[in-house]
């Protein structure tokens, strides 16, 4: 199947990239189009079983239905894992809005597991996950199964296609992802009143910090993507798809060729909204320097090299209340 991606021609819809039966080269071309023009798209047919998706959403609903005290018992630890209570994240690093209100959402955060016998253990963001007192089969098992499926897709299907899209060898990114920094966030957005203040958000306008974000959302809607002219495009739920976006480090790696696009959430559906974003990022020690294919004569590198872990920690320290309390 070698058909062009339906790319944003009407300005009213994000493109859909289908992986089933598509050659790696076709997917690469479509990724480059989507990431260059808007920085967002949908993925379909990525090989992650629908039962895994249903399982992680069921686990999220079980967790968020727990009494507040049970969730607070696993409050975010210094490794950025655990429960994040409502209105404890204020996006100070937004480049498109002066954010004055904290996000109206709560979440459970899972990251890459770093056991005590791992040499990385104890470094910033390299430590243990926290788990609620729920039966393993009802929570930990489906959450870990979904996380593992997403990592496998990123490693096997996505990274090679992204490298080809940039004119690089298909294994170019692999050394940067031997020990990837991963996040799986189980988000719950309570309904917002339709007469809520204009600057009240479930998630205020922001860009993501790392490499790529792959979001599975329920049917409530509310996600919006900022166009280049400053207007907002709805990214409604489409059955069997994930919403995907370029994050800051990937945009930096490509010298801005691929856009890290601001996005926001307002849950005006009248009901509770659940989403499960998966963040697949490079190793904390990776040095992000503009790739050779994205700079040259007449197109100088616009960004100096940066260690991903340093960039990430600076963003977390500014945006999350629990980290400010720990350092005050």
TrEMBL record:
Keywords: Ethylene biosynthesis, Iron, Metal-binding, Oxidoreductase. PANTHER family: 2-OXOGLUTARATE (2OG) AND FE(II)-DEPENDENT OXYGENASE SUPERFAMILY PROTEIN-RELATED. It comes from the Bacteria. Its cofactor is Fe(2+). It catalyses: 2-oxoglutarate + O2 + 2 H(+) = ethene + 3 CO2 + H2O; L-arginine + 2-oxoglutarate + O2 = guanidine + L-glutamate 5-semialdehyde + succinate + CO2. SUPFAM superfamilies: Clavaminate synthase-like. It comes from Enhydrobacter aerosaccus. Residues 180-282 form the Fe2OG dioxygenase domain. GO terms for molecular function: 2-oxoglutarate oxygenase/decarboxylase (ethylene-forming) activity; metal ion binding. This is 2-oxoglutarate-dependent ethylene/succinate-forming enzyme. Its EC number is 1.13.12.19, 1.14.20.7. Belongs to the iron/ascorbate-dependent oxidoreductase family. It is an enzyme of class 1 (oxidoreductase). InterPro entries: DIOX_N, IPNS-like_FE2OG_OXY, IPNS-like_sf, Iron_ascorbate_oxido_reductase, Oxoglu/Fe-dep_dioxygenase_dom. PROSITE patterns: FE2OG_OXY.
């Amino acid at each position: 199947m070698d058909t062009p991606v339906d790319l944003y021609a009407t300005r009213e819809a994000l493109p859909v990239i289908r992986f089933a039966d598509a050659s790696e080269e076709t997917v690469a071309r479509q990724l480059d189009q989507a990431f260059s023009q808007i920085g967002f798209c949908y993925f379909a047919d990525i090989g992650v079983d629908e039962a895994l998706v249903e399982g992680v959403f069921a686990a999220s609903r079980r967790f968020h239905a727990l009494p507040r005290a049970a969730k607070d018992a696993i409050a975010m630890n210094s490794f950025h894992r655990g429960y994040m209570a409502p209105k404890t994240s204020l996006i100070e690093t937004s480049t498109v809005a002066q954010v004055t209100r904290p996000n109206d959402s709560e979440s459970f955060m899972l990251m890459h597991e770093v056991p005590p016998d791992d040499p990385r253990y104890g470094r910033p963001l390299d430590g243990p996950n926290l788990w609620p007192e729920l039966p393993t089969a009802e929570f930990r098992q489906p959450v870990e199964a979904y996380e593992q499926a997403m990592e496998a897709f990123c490693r096997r299907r996505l990274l090679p296609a992204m490298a080809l899209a940039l004119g690089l060898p298909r294994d170019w990114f692999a050394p940067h992802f031997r020990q990837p920094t991963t996040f799986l966030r189980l988000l719950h957005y309570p309904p917002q009143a339709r007469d809520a203040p204009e600057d009240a958000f479930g998630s205020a306008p922001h860009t993501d910090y790392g490499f790529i974000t792959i979001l599975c959302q329920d049917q409530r809607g509310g996600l919006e993507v900022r166009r280049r002219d400053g207007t907002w495009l709805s990214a409604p739920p489409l059955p069997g798809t994930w919403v995907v976006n370029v994050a800051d480090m990937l945009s930096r790696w490509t010298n801005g060729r691929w856009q890290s696009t601001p996005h926001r959430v307002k849950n005006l559906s009248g009901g509770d909204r659940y989403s499960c974003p998966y963040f697949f990022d490079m190793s904390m020690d990776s040095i992000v320097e503009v790739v050779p294919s994205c700079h040259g004569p007449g197109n100088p590198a616009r960004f100096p090299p940066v260690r991903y872990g340093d960039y990430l920690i600076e963003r977390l320290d500014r945006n999350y209340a629990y980290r400010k309390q720990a350092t005050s």
